[in-house]
Amino acid sequence: MKTSLTAEWRHITSDKWLFSMVTWLPPLLFFLLYCVFAQGLPRDLAIGVVDLDHSSISRRLIRTYDASPSLAVTASYSSPAEGTAAMRDAKIYGLIIIPPNTEKDMTLGAGPAVEAYYNSQYLLIGKMVKSAIAAAHSTIAVQIDAVKNLTTGSIAMEKAVSEALPLSTQITSLYNIGKNYAQFLGSAVLPAMWQILIVMTTVYSLGKGLRKTKTKPASGLPATLSELANKLAPYTLIFWLQGILMLIGMFILAGWPMHGSLTILVCAQFLTVCACQIMAALIMYLIRDSARALSSAAAYAAPGLAFMGVTYPVTDMIYPARVWRSLLPMSHYIDIQISQANYGTSIANSLPQFTYLLLFMTPLLLLPILVKRVKRLQEISA
Fold it and tell me: What is the mean pLDDT of each run of 10 residues along the chain (382 residues)?
């Protein structure tokens, strides 16, 4: 084992791309991805206002929009057409149109129609703008109705507010209480990126034997299972260490909540690394061409985030998508990570996911056949 580690490390240091993929590149990618979501919550999203009323009520509405942590009134337009053009040019994410006679209609109880538009092409931003505008409208409506109730008779402030808002809702998040998007997306994006690195690095390292150089002929793929195991063992340790560092970064350094056991996640990571390596080796032995194998590995591993079931529910996926998801080791790992981080469940509740990861070892039954074929082809070519 020590000899294989030493020999493979020499191979790693002799290839600048392989050296990068197992040393400084993964931490750099993890850090850059974390920086993208580090803010956690989108704030001060730019919106514009078309004030056609120019009254105290309209100015009060604008101040309420601007007071929202998620919104920032950055522009005022003289016409709806001008505001719509700015939203199409991505200068603002939302547009509020306050119609004429807004204050008059409110005084008479007619209920003016304040129009709000947002760009839903930006899924996250559009959702935030929509909810922030709705909250601002509710706030100003309750305030105005409460003042009306106070002026109609000698009633207390609490009763005036309750009559203005007879029904109220309270939404309490059981997990990710602060609605931190860094925690929500980062905890899925990082493992997805990790899976891509494992698969691509494994295929690249195996493909080194198929590439000729001016000073060294192609040596071919490992011709026995023991050679393959010795070849992949050093990378298994490196990938596993990367996974552990990822857990430390997410749940210790970043302080994301962890209600379960890190030990269970570390064990799941080891099985995930082995599963990803086996699938990468299967791709390599089936194709036996370095360039095409890398392309196939990218097509296999890259959609991992979309099929994890984090950003899109698994129950709403069509059957082929669920089949593809089941073929990705990281999909089963992320179920274990979510159950431990959010729910703090026992290992018994994660046994199905551990079983699925163990099932990825079944291609080992096919690998001896492929290895023998590779060995026979190498003997013929020799």
Answer: 70 87 90 80 87 87 87 91 90 91 74 81 82 80 59 52 51 66 85 95 87 55 82 93 94 89 96 96 89 93 88 86 93 94 90 94 81 69 58
CA distance 201 to 199: 6
Cβ pair 336, 268 in contact under 8 A: yes
Buried b (16+ CB within 10 A) or exposed e, 45-80: bbbbbbbebebebbeebbebbeebebbbbbbebeee
User: How many Å apart are CA 77 and CA 73, to the nearest integer?
Assistant: 11
In one-letter notation, the amino acid at residue 56 is: S
Provide the 8-state DSSP code for 311.
Answer: S
Residue 14 and residue 7 in contact, taking contact as beta carbons nearer than 8 Å: no
Write down the pTM of the prediction: 0.79
The range of the structural domain enclosing residue 72 comes to 45-164
Considering the domain architecture, whether residues 202 and 335 belong to the same structural domain is answered as: yes
> Which helix or strand (DSSP H or E) is residue 47 part of?
strand 45-51
The number of helix segments (H) and strand segments (E) in the chain equals: 17, 4
CB 269 within 8 A of CB 240: yes
How far, in Å, are 25, 41, 260 from residue 44 at the CA level?
33, 10, 35
φ/ψ of 50, rounded to 5, equals: -115, 100
CATH of the domain at 155: 3.40.1710.10
204 neighbors 21 (Cβ within 8 angstroms): yes
Cα 374 to Cα 225: distance, rounded to the nearest angstrom = 12
- How many domains, the chain? 2
Token pair for 276: 């990803």
